[in-house]
């Protein structure tokens, strides 16, 4: 029982995400400058900063599901870096004023971004360096955006107290565009102090969605 490891960061942590193999963790401390992004290897108890200088204020970082790529979102753009070659692979301009959340599709070819200016943006990395689709269903700032790891589902959570669930299908045929269809709106969280749903996360195997709200509750929606 108790903590197995404690990570010492140079600034206040905003986000953290695991690599799919479970040995690496990436953390983001937006105000820490060049050390805003740190990659931690659990087995060796080591941490390193992959970047020597900051390219804007980093908001979120995520690993690619199968390649040695790291997705880094600043306030307006998403950059994709090759960690082994230490090189920039792609830069995507999202059209957002301030990115709040990001997720990477299980294929690694699509990125979902949420923003404080109420946008949910889908970026197809094979198609363009600009958004494939911009969704404006929320009335207030978007706090969470997530793809399901197995099912063609995605969700967005916002300060309006609602979670929107979409059918989100991608195809192996590169000439066929992704299909995004609104499915339902999940309600249950109360808005507290101007804040609503702060995060949303899918179950790794089931079509279940967890949401965390400023009202101090975590809710599970089954078979969405």
From TrEMBL:
GO terms for cellular component: PeBoW complex; preribosome, large subunit precursor. Keywords: Repeat. GO terms for biological process: maturation of LSU-rRNA from tricistronic rRNA transcript (SSU-rRNA, 5.8S rRNA, LSU-rRNA). It comes from the Eukaryota. It holds the Pfam family WD40. The keyword Repeat applies. The keyword Transcription regulation does not apply. Coiled coil: none annotated. GO terms for molecular function: ribonucleoprotein complex binding. This is Ribosome biogenesis protein BOP1 homolog. It comes from Heterosigma akashiwo (Chromophytic alga).
């Amino acid at each position: 029982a108790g903590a197995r490891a404690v990570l010492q960061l140079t600034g206040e942590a905003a986000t953290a995400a695991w690599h799919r193999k479970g040995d690496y963790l990436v953390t983001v401390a937006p105000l820490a400058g060049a050390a805003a992004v740190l990659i931690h290897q659990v087995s060796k108890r080591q941490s390193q900063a992959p970047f020597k200088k900051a390219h804007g204020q980093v908001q979120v970082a995520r690993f690619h599901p199968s390649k040695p790529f790291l997705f880094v979102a600043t306030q307006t753009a998403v950059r994709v870096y090759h960690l082994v070659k230490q090189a920039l692979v792609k830069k995507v301009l999202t059209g957002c004023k301030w990115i709040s959340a990001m997720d990477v599709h299980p294929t690694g070819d699509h990125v979902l971004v949420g923003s404080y200016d109420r946008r949910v943006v889908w970026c197809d990395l094979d198609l363009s360096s600009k958004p494939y689709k911009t969704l404006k269903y929320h009335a207030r700032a978007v706090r969470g955006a997530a793809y399901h790891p197995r099912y063609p589902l995605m969700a967005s959570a916002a300060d309006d107290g609602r979670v929107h669930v979409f059918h989100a299908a991608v195809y192996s045929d590169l000439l066929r565009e992704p299909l995004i269809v609104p499915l339902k709106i999940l309600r249950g969280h109360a808005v507290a102090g101007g804040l609503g749903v702060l995060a949303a996360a899918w179950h790794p195997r089931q079509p279940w969605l967890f949401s965390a709200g400023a009202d101090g509750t975590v809710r599970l929606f089954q078979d969405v």
